[in-house]
Amino acid sequence: MYKTGRSEEKKMVLYQFENDRKYDRASDYLEGFNGVIQSDGYQAYANIKDIKNMGCFAHIRRKLVEVMDVAPKGTVIKETQTYKMYQLINKLFYLEKVYDKKYKKDYDRITRERKTKSLPVLEEFYEIVKTVAPHTPKKSHLDTAMTYAINNEKYLRYYIEDGRVEISNNSAERCCKSFVIGRKNFLFSNSINGAKASGAAYSIIESAKMNGLKPYEYIEYILTRMTGNKLTADLLEKIMPWSEELPKNLYKNKKAESVK
Length: 260
Known about the structure:
The chain has twelve helices and four strands.
């Protein structure tokens, strides 16, 4: 699943079926792309040329929560190093909320704020990680968390340098969730062609939602517009979910009121 970042004007999400998780799949699909990719640490993205990788702090936070969940009975969680690391990650997320509320889409300002306020917190986090990691029992939950943090350090640190990048890829995972929730409703779609068709349908539906459109009405509209017309690049651009030529009635009420 590929989704545009928060700074992009054209909002879209694409569901691409692949028969395996080989490096070539991501590399071939993203050929020619030279921007930033944010992921959960999937190594295939790290090997693609001409891109910058950003990690996901939500993933490391979840791993720390798992460590605390399996702590021995009687452990005073708030006195553990795991809890300290967890709280530092929470502070990074809190700071992001402050930046987003105060500076909106001023990504240059957000970059400066991260370097001034977030970076010291991140440094403190990694000081603890590098102190704890050498003494962590192998194959334990804590070992998994520390290994993830160390292996992805350069990717996690990248967000400090670019205010456009989010602190996590939670927004992308929310797009995945809609597909997972509906999975039991299309068990009959059990072929490669069926998977590709489902991906195409979900791409249209979720992209419509991202642009404030009512999915059913939008699909009805584009099918009507395409009927009897040659599918040209010009027509496609006019019916894309971000097009300014779409009828007002396709938008949700709040959006429709602001569209001229």
